[in-house]
Write a structure and sequence with these properties.
Elements: H1 4-9, H2 26-34, E1 39-42, H3 48-61, E2 66-71, H4 77-86, E3 91-95, H5 100-108, E4 112-117, H6 120-129, E5 134-137, H7 150-160, E6 165-168
Parallel strand pairs: 1-2, 2-3, 3-4, 4-5, 5-6
Helix pairs in contact: 2-3, 6-7
Length: 173
C-alpha cells in the first residue's frame, strides 16, 4: 500500500500502533513494525533505563522503522528527548504539550516528529514548528483530549495543514 505516510516513514501499511501506557513495550512495538505498521513504545512516566531496554528488545525483533511516544509534561522529558536521539529512534509521537523545545534536536537527528493534536489550530502550529505529520485525536480516543469527535476533527485538521494527517479514535479509524 502506498500513501503519504508509508512513503514518509518507510512503512508498508499506514497503521500506527497506539502508545498505550504500560502496554506498548518493545515486544509489541517490534512486532507491529515487523508486520509493516509503525510500532510505538510508550515512554511516558517510564524510567530511562526501561526505555533503553525496550528499544533494544524491539530492535531485536525488527530492523524496520520504530517509534516512541513522549509525554511532554513528564519531568524527565529533557533526558528522554536526548536518549531517543542516542537510540536512533525513527519516529517520535508527542502528547501532553508542545514539542517546540525538542524539534530542532530531533529533526537534526533525522527523526520524524508526529504530534498528537486535538484541534485544527494546534495542527497548523505543529506544521509551522516542522512536524512531519500529525495525529488528529478525537475525544473517543485513548488520550481523551479535545472537545471534538474524530469524525468532526479530522476534516478540519486536513483543511488546516498540508502535512499528512492520521486519525485516532472513533468510528472508522
Amino acid at each position: 500500500m502506498n500513501t503519504r505516510i508509508t512513503e514518509l516513514l518507510g512503512i508498508q501499511y499506514p497503521i500506527f500502533q497506539g502508545a498505550m501506557a504500560r502496554i506498548a513495550d518493545g515486544r509489541l512495538a517490534g512486532a507491529v513494525s515487523e508486520a509493516g505498521g509503525l510500532g510505538i513504545i510508550a515512554c511516558g512516566g517510564a524510567p530511562l533505563e526501561w526505555v533503553r531496554e525496550q528499544v533494544a528488545i524491539a530492535r531485536s525483533i525488527t530492523s524496520k522503522p520504530l517509534g516512541a511516544n513522549v509525554m511532554l509534561m513528564d519531568p524527565k522529558t529533557d533526558e528522554l528527548a536526548e536518549l531517543l536521539v542516542e537510540l536512533d529512534i525513527d519516529v517520535i509521537t508527542t502528547g501532553a504539550g508542545s514539542p517546540a523545545n525538542y524539534m530542532k534536536m530531533w529533526k537534526e537527528a533525522g527523526i520524524k516528529v508526529v504530534p498528537v493534536v486535538a484541534s485544527a489550530a494546534l495542527a497548523a502550529r505543529m506544521e509551522r514548528l516542522g512536524a512531519d505529520a500529525v495525529v488528529a485525536e478525537g475525544t473517543e480516543a485513548g488520550g481523551h483530549i479535545g472537545e471534538l469527535t474524530t469524525m468532526a476533527l479530522v476534516p478540519s485538521v486536513c483543511r488546516a495543514v498540508k502535512i499528512p494527517v492520521l486519525a485516532a479514535g472513533g468510528p472508522g479509524c
